């Protein structure tokens, strides 16, 4: 249960960071009557039919400014690091040619003896 709650909280946090303007709009729509009656700059001028839109526009501008400040802050806090390495050179020694005739390899003597006695072993004759 705790894992699911944590997952949903993280998903909400990711979406909240990306859709802040949507949350401002939804908050405005839910509280539009209260905003028009108490927070609107033009609340004493009902002939303008503002209905809190001036407050909404101010909040949208404030959210956009916060996003710009956050983007500038993220860009300035990055540290660029370059890695420079000297090239690694592989050197091989020159091959040595061995003269096979003068190497003096020993001659292999093949001494095979068989104890097969043809006088004792007689294979069976085929019937066909």
Question: How would you explain this protein's 3D organization?
Answer:
By secondary structure, the chain is mainly alpha-helical. The chain has a domain at 20-75. The protein is built from four helices and no strands. Helix 2 packs antiparallel against helix 4. The chain is elongated, with a radius of gyration of 46 Å. The two termini are 84 Å apart. 4% of the residues are buried. The model has no long low-confidence stretch (mean pLDDT 78).
Largest sheet: none
**Unreliable segments (pLDDT under 50, ≥5 consecutive)?**
none
> Mean pLDDT score, rounded?
78
User: Strand-and-helix sequence, N→C?
Assistant: HHHH
Give keywords.
single chain, 128 residues, mainly alpha, 4 helices, 0% strand
